[in-house]
């Protein structure tokens, strides 16, 4: 009995000392009380990233957090909770208080493409969140080694070769875009998944595979240097950074695949809070430093409203599912 | 040679006082962060990116590169003092580094590590300056089959790091390979051994496994026998390595530099493989291999030299091909993008002073580390004079808080506790944790590349041997595996013949007896009866 | 505690001494249990790999590689079982092994509450238990030590480096 009392005394003493010396520092745990939206923001607004630090989603989140925090006049710490393409972070956000103090940068691929490759209970539905705003669009480009002599998709088809195509992983836009293209073009091909963009690109450079679908930001320096030939981009419209490269749709294939990102808050966050947040991120979008960042990363701004994001992503999900069904594509276990 | 002048200009850039200051700050921050195992250099650099927006690109990158180096050395410090390897490439350092620390020679281990790192970095940067264009294509020739062969050789080397029973070492390695398969399969998207937990979907991180089976397992084991094994060394003597120890490890440092430079060129896994290979080579060339794992200075010098040489030469793919070789360099170059500099094949031509500024700052970072080690090592080793009963909770807290920062999730804390228990049980039952952790690190490299190769070969395994580089590597693999097996079979037959002549000889249960000729140099091995698995012979010199 | 004259010892002698001070070796039963655990692990791996599907050489499925590794593990486990009688590197469990269980028990509550109430209080409590009860330090050392550890951690990782551990203050 005495032991326990003393243990508690020790803890209380410890807690007291800490309170006394560091009371001004403030914790990062956040309260749970209900919010009406009027007193927002109340303390730090946490921005969670569902990917590893250093990836493009992470860099985008960090580039936005600074100017947005300035507009809100509160700090905006960025926290990485990587796992399952962001599903871990998304599921966790669902359980957070709907007061706007917790936000997340979410990927369209998690909503629209991942469901094609994983089991039912891992699927994340955009309807389960309040979308604050869309952010930007990141395009996939199909690249080949110049040694192949291919300049367009037609060259590739005419070669009559069995094509080994590298992708950045299973259940990614890279895999979906190349599968769709080669199935529609009737090209015999083998899907070779790599662990991310850099290894897939290295494999094309070293002629280990014939082509690969890679995010533009990663492939661009090599395209500039003439070490990779861009065959098509998979966006709906031509990409502003690669004006000369046709889209797959122009070339006659129904492959509209891009990566989009958006800011979401837990379902039920008051409208006034969402509006305030949207205002803050609008201010961030107007920040010259952020615009420079977009250009440096070859991102196309896609700063659409929350409702438009929901509509666009849901449509994309349904159309991908229909296309995968139509062309009998194997994306993973779920199909 | 016009390739030298930008290099010298690069040194001029680094030597500016402001840049030196930022380099120093970076190295210090890196060292502190390196103590917390979960927070790798890539994550730290990403977190500190906003701090660099205000300064010149070169200065920013110099600071970030300093973090990279400091964190590596911080990881070495915890590996040696607390048995907590923060990075996969310093796992091998744990074996002899920690043994040295327990003998009161932590200063020797840390000093040798700093000197080795410095030499490895120096050799590598000189080679990089002159050889980079010549070996540009080397990395590109390494496709999936070549990585498969390399990973197989690596797994084979894993067996050489262990000192105990070989059979148990192989069992531990297999468990490591199996743990590496946990998570979503990168080829089919199928969930493997995740038990429907989203937290496991990306597999298990290296940090909870290494912290658990090494650090926590050791603490738990010592807790049980506080009076015996966990006593702090009576005195923490000779902070700086003696002349004899320096001489002893000079060969290891030389070989480690070369191995590190060559393997570091390969993107992905280069640093881990090079530290492992350097350790394996040292054990092979040593007159008395049994010293390894019990505090051999070469066992610290070789891997620490190699992983640093590899870190420097990993800039070659970037320099010549525009490919970032590891996550940390990828983040550093993400930072360049934000600064408006496009990294890629043209970076060296367009921005030579920036490129060489970065590379040389890593070099300066090494010198700073070397200079700082002299006073700091003396400070660090004082930690060992703390009583075990006080050091234990500190280590536990570093471990628990450190693994949390891997993915900011409490799930990893539970994982490290589970692996701590596993590490403790392994120690109790005579299994060494080293092979488990190293096999875990190499496991996904091996599996992914083997399967990728098979897809490319359409199932035709002969493809592995018809490609020049992978053919040579596989030939090396089979020579290493088959020769000792053949020798074993030959001796076994001889033993059988002898038994025919003397029917009263050994019975079937202890085939270990025919091993006595080679087992003699392993006098302190526990369980001599355990040493006659075929793999054992791959690491021994056969005695004629 | 009797401290041997340590300065005179070479690394080899030290290693030998640690070897001697080890608890007594466990008998064949413990070895059999370890081998059994390895076999069970291997067999479970085989079964789960088969349910994932092994595929073919040209198109290896998700279960192919784990199947190979699990099968190897099972065979090695059987080999361990066969040699259980002639292996001497396992150690007996004694009463002091219970402290290990106690130590593990302190970490579970830490993991459970750290996300809710921050690391400070659980860390101080954990350090206190380790110091006072597992380490048998004095009350004073235990209280001061545990508080000091948390303060230093806070200063370095929260204040100086801004690491994102949950913290109350």
TrEMBL record, chain A:
Full protein name: Bug family tripartite tricarboxylate transporter substrate binding protein
Domain of life according to the entry: Bacteria
Classification via SUPFAM superfamilies: Periplasmic binding protein-like II
Positions in coiled-coil regions: none
Pfam families tied to this protein: TctC
Signal sequence region: 1-26
InterPro entries: BUG (IPR005064), Bug_dom1 (IPR042100)
Family: Belongs to the UPF0065 (bug) family.
UniProtKB/TrEMBL annotation, chain B:
Keyword Disulfide bond: no
InterPro entries named among the record's database cross-references: DUF112_TM
Secretion signal span: none
Keywords: Membrane, Transmembrane, Transmembrane helix
Pfam families in alphabetical order: TctA
Disordered as annotated region, ranges: 501-544
DUF112 domain boundaries: 20-438
Transmembrane intervals: 20-39, 45-69, 110-135, 147-162, 169-187, 258-281, 318-341, 361-381, 469-490
PANTHER family hit by this protein: TRICARBOXYLIC TRANSPORT PROTEIN (PTHR35342)
Protein name: Tripartite tricarboxylate transporter permease
TrEMBL record, chain C:
Pfam families referenced in this protein's UniProt entry, alphabetically: TctB (PF07331)
Matches recorded under InterPro entries: DUF1468
Keyword Membrane: yes
Residue span(s) of domain DUF1468: 33-166
Transmembrane segments: 32-53, 65-86, 98-131, 143-165
Alphabetic keyword roster: Membrane, Transmembrane, Transmembrane helix
Domain of life: Bacteria
Protein name, per record: Tripartite tricarboxylate transporter TctB family protein
Organism whose genome encodes this protein: Mumia xiangluensis
Phylogenetic placement of the source organism: Bacteria, Bacillati, Actinomycetota, Actinomycetes, Propionibacteriales
């Amino acid at each position: 009995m005495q032991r326990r009392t003393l243990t508690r005394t020790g803890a209380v003493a410890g807690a007291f000392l800490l309170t006394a010396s560091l009371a001004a520092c403030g914790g990062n745990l956040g309260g749970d009380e209900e919010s009406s939206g009027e007193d927002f923001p109340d303390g730090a607004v946490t921005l969670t990233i569902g990917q590893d630090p250093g990836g493009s989603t992470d860099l985008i989140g960090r580039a936005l957090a600074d100017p947005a925090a300035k507009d809100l006049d509160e700090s905006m710490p960025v926290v990485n909770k990587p796992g399952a393409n962001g599903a871990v972070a998304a599921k966790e956000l669902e359980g957070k208080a709907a007061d706007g103090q917790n936000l997340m940068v979410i990927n369209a691929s998690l909503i629209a493409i991942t469901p094609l490759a994983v089991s039912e209970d891992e699927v994340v539905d955009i309807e389960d969140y309040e979308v604050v705003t869309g952010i930007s669009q990141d395009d996939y480009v199909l690249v080949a080694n110049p040694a192949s002599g291919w300049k367009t998709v037609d060259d590739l088809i005419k070669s009559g070769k069995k094509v080994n195509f590298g992708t950045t992983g299973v259940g990614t836009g890279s895999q979906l875009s190349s599968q769709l293209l080669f199935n529609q073009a009737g090209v015999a091909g083998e899907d070779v998944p790599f662990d991310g963009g850099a290894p897939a690109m290295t494999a094309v450079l070293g002629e280990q595979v014939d082509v690969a679908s890679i995010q533009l930001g990663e492939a661009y320096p090599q395209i500039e240097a003439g070490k990779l030939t861009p065959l098509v981009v998979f966006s709906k419209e031509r990409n502003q950074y690669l004006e000369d490269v046709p889209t797959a749709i122009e070339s006659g294939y129904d492959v509209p695949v891009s990566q989009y990102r958006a800011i979401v808050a837990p379902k039920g966050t008051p409208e006034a809070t969402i509006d305030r947040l949207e205002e803050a991120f609008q201010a961030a979008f107007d920040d010259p430093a952020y615009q420079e960042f977009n250009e440096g990363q070859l991102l196309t701004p896609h700063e659409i409203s929350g409702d438009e994001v929901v509509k666009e992503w849901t449509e994309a999900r349904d159309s991908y599912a229909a296309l995968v069904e139509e062309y009998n594509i194997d994306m993973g276990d779920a199909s | 040679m016009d390739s030298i002048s930008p290099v010298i200009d690069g040194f001029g850039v680094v030597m500016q006082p402001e840049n030196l200051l930022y380099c120093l700050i970076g190295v210090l921050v890196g060292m502190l962060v390196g103590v917390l195992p979960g927070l790798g250099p890539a994550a730290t650099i990403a977190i500190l990116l906003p701090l660099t927006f205000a300064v010149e690109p070169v200065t920013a990158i110099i600071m970030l590169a300093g973090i990279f180096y400091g964190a590596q050395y911080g990881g070495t410090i915890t590996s040696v003092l607390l048995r907590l390897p923060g990075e996969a490439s310093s796992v091998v350092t744990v074996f002899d580094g920690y043994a040295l620390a327990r003998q009161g020679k932590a200063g020797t281990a840390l000093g040798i590590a700093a000197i080795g790192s410095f030499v490895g970095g120096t050799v590598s940067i000189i080679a990089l300056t002159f050889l980079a264009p010549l070996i540009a294509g080397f990395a590109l020739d390494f496709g999936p089959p070549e990585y498969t062969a390399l990973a197989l050789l690596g797994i084979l080397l894993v067996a050489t790091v262990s000192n105990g029973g070989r059979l148990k070492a192989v069992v531990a390695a297999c468990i490591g390979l199996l743990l590496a398969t946990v998570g979503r399969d990168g080829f089919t998207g199928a969930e493997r051994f995740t038990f429907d937990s989203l937290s496991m979907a990306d597999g298990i991180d290296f940090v909870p496994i290494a912290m658990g089976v090494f650090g926590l397992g050791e603490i738990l084991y010592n807790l049980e026998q506080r009076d015996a094994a966990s006593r702090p060394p009576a005195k923490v003597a000779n902070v700086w390595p003696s002349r004899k120890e320096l001489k002893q490890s000079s060969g290891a440092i030389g070989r480690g530099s070369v191995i590190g430079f060559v393997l570091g060129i390969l993107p992905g896994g280069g640093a881990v493989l090079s530290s492992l290979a350097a350790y394996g080579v040292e054990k092979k060339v040593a007159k008395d291999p049994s010293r390894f794992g019990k505090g051999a200075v070469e066992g610290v010098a070789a891997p620490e030299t190699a992983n640093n040489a590899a870190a420097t030469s990993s800039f070659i793919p970037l320099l010549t091909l525009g490919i970032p070789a590891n996550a940390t360099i990828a983040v550093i170059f993400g930072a360049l993008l934000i600064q408006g500099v496009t990294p890629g094949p043209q970076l060296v031509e367009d921005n030579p002073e920036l490129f060489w500024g970065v590379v040389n700052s890593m070099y300066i970072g090494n010198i700073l580390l070397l200079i700082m080690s002299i006073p700091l090592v003396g400070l660090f080793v004082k930690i060992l004079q703390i009583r075990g009963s006080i050091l234990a909770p500190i280590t536990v807290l570093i471990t628990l808080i450190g693994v949390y920062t891997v993915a900011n999730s409490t799930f990893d804390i539970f994982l490290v506790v589970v692996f701590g228990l596993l590490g403790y049980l392994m120690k109790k039952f005579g299994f060494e944790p080293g092979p488990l952790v190293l096999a875990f690190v190499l496991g996904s490299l091996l599996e992914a590349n083997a399967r990728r190769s098979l897809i490319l070969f359409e199932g035709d395994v002969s493809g592995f041997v018809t490609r020049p580089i992978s053919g040579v590597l596989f030939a090396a693999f089979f020579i290493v595996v088959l020769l000792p097996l053949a020798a074993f079979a030959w001796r076994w037959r001889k033993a059988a013949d002898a038994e025919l002549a003397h029917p009263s000889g050994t019975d079937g249960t202890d085939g270990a007896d025919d091993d006595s000729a080679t087992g003699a140099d392993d006098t302190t091995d526990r369980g001599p009866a355990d040493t006659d698995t075929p793999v054992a012979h791959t690491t021994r010199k056969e005695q004629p | 505690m009797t401290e041997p004259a340590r300065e005179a010892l070479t690394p080899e002698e030290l290693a030998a001494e640690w070897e001697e001070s080890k608890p007594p070796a466990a008998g064949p039963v413990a070895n059999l249990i370890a081998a059994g655990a390895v076999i069970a692990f291997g067999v479970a791996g085989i079964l789960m790999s088969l349910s994932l599907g092994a595929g073919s050489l040209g198109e290896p499925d998700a279960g192919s590689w784990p199947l190979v590794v699990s099968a190897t593990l099972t065979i090695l486990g059987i080999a361990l079982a066969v040699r259980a009688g002639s292996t001497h590197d396992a150690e007996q469990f004694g009463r002091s092994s219970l402290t290990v269980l106690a130590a593990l028990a302190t970490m579970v509550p830490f993991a459970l509450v750290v996300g809710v109430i921050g690391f400070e209080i659980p860390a101080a409590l954990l350090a206190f238990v380790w110091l006072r009860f597992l380490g048998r330090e004095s009350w004073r050392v235990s209280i001061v030590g545990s508080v000091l550890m948390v303060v230093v951690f806070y200063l370095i990782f929260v204040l100086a480096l801004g690491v994102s551990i949950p913290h109350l203050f």
